[in-house]
TrEMBL record:
GO BP annotation list: DNA repair
Name of the protein in question: Helicase POLQ-like
Its EC number(s): 5.6.2.4
Organism taxonomic ancestry: Eukaryota, Metazoa, Chordata, Craniata, Vertebrata
Stretches assigned to the Helicase ATP-binding domain: 300-472
Pfam family name, one: HTH_61
């Protein structure tokens, strides 16, 4: 038909224009797309089905043929639109891309009338021809119907043939909906079918004419377009099309990953990921282009083939971004869960906040496993993948639960940050156990390790079966210096003495200043602050506070004027976070832009100080070495006050981690580190700065073989090993086996296994059946120990304390329960103030005082110690000190004020908060411990509530808000007072409104907070939905339902 090749010109009459830079939709004509739309000139435009106003009485579908306009319009035959033309010309959304209206372009209407006339004549000719045919001739059957059917429907099957699969499916769904809508309307209005209409026309001898049965197509089309313009848009077409494009790109990436080769290193628009990921990286992180080493690493053959990899770079080299891209590829393309292991709770929370927006945009869950948070086993999700972000200890428990529930194969990727911590005491042993179990039980799980440069990286490669990628890239050049007396030397390994003269320190000191600051710290820091930032690493916490105070004492008053208003705000926030109390040192130093940072600060104080330093409000931090291993706070200059941490000389890895903070990418062109030395430390410092990196060794055998004991117990409990031979076979997958020549000198690995199994049997944690082939089985106590992640050295003591507690459990208050979950490992750090101890005892109720004697702390002992008298009667000092810590926790639960409790018990506020976080984590462990022992059943309900209270230690109404990662008490109070009282309130808040409502809240902070709340809300909703689906799913083991 000729009208199928009709060319239509559309003229813009609407004054308001849409930006030309928006996403181009399928509404742009083919020839226009060929020039600028990014498509092939001959590609087929998509159809748009658009819902008209609900007041329309009758809907009919009119399709303009392919090659003319190219959209489907749904119109009404009973709704008058002429009187509303002007109103609908300026709708809120442009329906036609770059073209707005055809109301004043008569050419299209004329051409449609011409096509209508042509069709009408053809129909009349067919009618005349039919009267000449015999009754049984198929040609005498009724024609296809009026113009709306014959002109348009004949092209219906051809219009989608050139679309990509994702958009084809999308358009087919729309077309099906339009057809169903049309059929429903026809049924409601009793519209006759084509056959019935034709029969009626024959029976009435042509009394009805097509021109009377319908209105002009031109009029109908015009009214329909106006109606469509007035119809509100439920879902943005651009958003739907972008979603279709993302789906298409992921599909392409998945196919490419299956057929990968070395010749095609780039799998997709952004390393095998949809282009939306690249857009999010730019929008949220400001990353436009990856470093060369990052691209090279992502294109490694071992990465593309999903083999294990260890990559090593200096601090601040951008290692984490590579891991995040690999995680996103696993989640989106392979549809597998991922586990990201980080060393500290603060890092876990920071990463959860940072990736929550990615999860919301790309439809995956981000789950936090830190402290008391995390569910074991994790929620099993049918439709979404999960990214578990966990601390070292929580990751081990998570892997154990996945093995026990036979779901480890769902874990596609495991990423370990700071892999060199394998050599870090008991925590290193936990990392080794986790990785060994994953390697042994799941061949399909890829392991990626990020590490500092190590001297024995090949040992780690053998342990993980991994390849290694190493690069010395730093985004900012680092220059290392040492200071001896008044002279500064540059570190140069090529020099004979490792040091090359650089310059003399040019700063005039008075005699009094020389006595107070003999190391010239003030001279070194004033060379860079306040315009640039500086970190001063100190050997002890007390030294941090002293150095910060000393520096401010000699700074000029000009420092007070630098960003004065913002520093005043910071002081207000610090005071509010302490409920009116404030550290006197910070009150004196913050006005100068100086603060200290160590574990003695509360979590709120640390967060405020870190954010202020990141924004440049604070220009100098005096800190301990823990800051270098935690959150990334770079500086122009890093000063090491001493080559010691407490009384121990620095390790090479610690030194590198500290000096690695020098140089801020995108801000500085160079970073400097200065190590202050005394003459007596010169030779040791030479080895420190010039020696090769230390080696990393297994810690399974350390601390009386605690690590390997825990490992063997869990292997037996998880049914991984049931004999000595199987245990030994598993140990061949550990780092200990790789390094057995260095570590198993006194005793072979086989002898060690036999010794450990005997020890576990002696502790009644396992049993050995006396058969021809001895079988190992875990006892109930042993199962409780490994599922609760309880240290085996405390396992028996904990069990006895819980059993003893049940005999006379005091529930008139929380004190008895709090005592039972007070961590054993903090007892050695406790030195009670006996007067405070006795005073707090006298304030207790009679039932609480009675409980003291029940746990082995008699009143007479505390009274005599408070009076300074000697005590002849032997008393369990562990129980006495543990009760003192329990009193501290009990006071926190009542007052929820860290400052007041710390002052009451003469403790630092940092120690009080550390005690609280340790107690909440241990309470969670004890809860899982009691769940495996039937005789301890009363504790299941009691400890569940106590864990919740210890985790947050705030008023009950603030807990829902503090569940959001990064929201602390001070911010939760602000939100609650502003009306955001539930998780749903916060998740649905507008970040811009939050910034205006809450004092001192920045846009970036608001965005991260709302994204984290949305993710947590989605996680809870999805967990409930999964529970519902599981309840309604037909059981797989349902007996046959046959009628008798």
């Amino acid at each position: 038909m000729s009208c199928g090749r009709l060319h239509v010109k559309i003229k813009r009459v609407c004054a308001r224009k849409r930006s030309r830079n928006v996403f181009k939709t399928h509404l742009i004509p083919v020839r226009k797309q060929g020039r600028g739309g990014g498509r092939e000139a001959g590609s087929t435009p998509c159809l748009l089905s658009r819902r008209s106003s609900t007041t329309m009485a009758e809907h009919r579908a009119v399709e303009v043929p392919r090659g003319s306009v190219g959209w489907t319009c749904i119109y009404s035959t009973s709704y008058s639109m002429e009187t509303r033309q002007k109103q609908y010309c300026s709708d809120s959304e442009d329906l036609f891309g770059e073209y707005d209206s055809i109301l004043e372009d008569t050419s299209i209407l004329a051409k449609l009338e011409e096509a209508e006339q042509h069709e009408r004549l053809r129909s009349e000719n067919l009618q005349s021809f039919r009267t000449l045919q015999p009754p049984g001739d198929p040609m005498s059957q009724s024609p296809k119907g009026p113009l709306t059917d014959s002109v348009f429907h004949e092209l219906e099957d051809k219009v989608f043939e050139d679309l990509p699969p994702s958009q084809l499916q999308f358009q087919e769904q729309i077309q099906d909906q339009a057809k169903k809508s049309k059929m429903q309307v026809q049924n409601k209005t009793s519209t006759p079918s084509h056959t019935e209409a034709a029969g009626e026309t024959n029976s009435e001898d042509g009394s009805r004419k097509h021109s009377k049965a319908r209105r002009s197509v031109a009029d109908l089309l015009k009214k329909t377009m106006l109606g469509n313009a007035a119809t509100p848009v439920g879902v943005s077409r651009t958003a739907l099309l972008k979603e279709a494009v993302i789906s298409e790109e992921i599909s392409v990436a998945m196919q490419a990953m299956e057929n990968i080769s070395a010749e095609t290193p780039d799998l997709g628009p952004f390393f095998g990921l949809p282009s939306k990921v690249k857009e999010l990286m730019h929008k949220l992180r400001g990353i436009q282009k990856l470093y060369d080493w990052q691209e090279a690493c992502l294109n490694l053959e071992c990465v593309q083939q999903r083999r294990n990899l260890i990559y090593s770079l200096p601090t601040s080299g951008g290692k984490t971004l590579v891991a995040e891209i690999l995680i996103l590829r696993e989640l989106l393309c392979r549809r597998k869960d991922c586990l990201f292991i980080l060393p500290y709770i603060s890092l876990v929370q920071e990463k959860v906040r940072g990736l929550a927006t990615f999860g919301l945009e790309l439809d995956f869950m981000v789950e936090e496993y830190a402290g008391s948070k995390g569910k074991f086993p994790p929620v099993k999700r049918r439709n979404k993948r999960s990214l578990y972000i966990a601390t070292i200890e929580k990751a081990h428990s998570l892997v154990n639960s996945l093995i026990e529930s036979s779901r480890l194969n769902h874990l596609g990727l495991l990423v370990v940050d700071e892999l060199h911590m394998l050599g870090d005491g008991s925590r290193g042993a936990v990392i080794e156990m986790t990785l060994a179990k994953v390697r042994y039980m799941s061949k399909a799980t890829q392991i990626i390790g990020m590490s500092a440069t190590l001297g024995n990286i090949k040992d780690l490669q053998m342990f993980l079966g991994a390849e290694n990628y190493t690069n010395d890239f730093r985004p900012v050049q680092l220059k290392e210096y040492v200071k001896l007396n008044d002279t500064i030397y540059e570190v140069d390994p090529k020099e004979e003495n490792c040091f090359r003269f650089s310059r003399m320190l040019n700063y005039k000191y008075s005699s009094s200043m020389q006595k107070i600051d003999p190391d010239h710290i003030i001279a070194l820091v004033t060379e860079v602050i306040p315009l640039h930032s500086c970190l001063v690493f100190c050997p002890t916490k007390k030294n941090c506070e002293n150095v910060a105070g000393m520096i401010c004492k000699y700074l000029k008053e000009d420092f007070l004027q630098h960003r004065e208003a913002e520093k005043a705000v910071l002081l207000q926030e610090l005071k509010a976070s302490g409920n009116g109390s404030m550290c006197p040192v910070l009150r004196r130093t913050v006005p100068y832009g100086v603060a200290y940072h160590h574990s003695g600060l509360t979590a709120e104080e640390r967060k405020l100080v870190e954010e202020a330093y990141s924004r440049g409000v604070l220009c100098l931090l005096a800190c301990t070495s823990t800051l270098a291993a935690g959150i990334n706070l770079p500086a122009r200059r890093v000063i090491l006050r001493s080559p010691y941490v407490a009384t121990e000389f620095l390790k090479r890895s610690q030194y590198k981690q500290m000096v690695g903070r020098a140089g801020r990418a995108g801000i500085d062109t160079i970073g400097e580190s200065i190590l202050i030395l005394q003459e007596k430390d010169r030779s040791m410092a030479k080895e420190l700065v010039c020696a090769p990196m230390e080696s990393c060794y297994s810690n399974l055998m350390q601390d009386d073989e605690r690590g390997i004991l825990s490992l063997i117990l869990s292997l037996i409990g998880l049914n991984i090993s049931s004999s000595l031979q199987q245990v030994e076979q598993f140990l061949h997958r550990t780092l200990l086996f790789v390094q057995q020549q260095q570590l198993c000198v006194e005793r072979s690995l086989w002898d060690t296994v036999q010794r450990c199994v005997a020890t576990l049997q002696e502790k009644e944690l396992i049993t050995i059946t006396a058969t021809h082939s001895p079988s190992l089985q875990v006892t109930r106590l042993g199962r409780a120990a490994y599922k609760g992640s309880v240290d085996l050295s405390y396992c028996s003591v904990l069990y006895k304390d819980l059993l003893k507690g049940l005999e006379g459990l005091q529930l008139s208050s929380h004190l008895h329960l709090v005592y039972l979950v007070t961590p054993y490992d903090l007892v050695p750090q406790c030195n009670p103030d006996w007067m405070v101890y006795f005073r707090q005892f006298t304030l207790l109720s009679a039932s609480e005082q009675k409980m003291f004697a029940a746990v082995g702390v008699p009143e007479s002992f505390v009274a005599r110690k408070a009076a300074g008298q000697t005590v002849k009667k032997s008393v369990d000092l562990v129980a006495v000190k543990r009760m003192y810590l329990a009193l501290v926790l009990f006071s926190l639960l009542r007052d929820t004020d860290v400052w007041a409790v710390a002052d009451r018990f003469q403790l630092t506020r940092g120690f009080v908060q550390t005690l609280l976080s340790s107690a909440s984590a241990f309470c969670c462990c004890v809860l899982h411990f009691t769940e495996e022992l039937e005789e301890l059943w009363p504790f299941k309900a009691l400890l569940l509530e106590l864990t919740h209270r210890l985790s947050y230690c705030v008023k009950a109404e603030l807990i829902p808000l503090m569940e959001v990662a990064g929201v602390l008490e001070f911010r939760a109070k602000q939100l609650y007072n502003a009306g955001y009282r539930t998780l749903s309130h916060l998740a649905n808040a507008d970040p811009a409104v939050l910034c205006r409502t809450l004092e001192h809240l920045y846009q970036k902070q608001a965005n991260l907070m709302v994204a984290s709340a949305k993710m947590l809300l989605n996680e809870k909703a999805a967990a409930l939905q999964e529970e519902v689906d599981e309840l309604l799913t037909l059981p797989a083991d349902l007996p046959p339902q046959q009628l008798l």
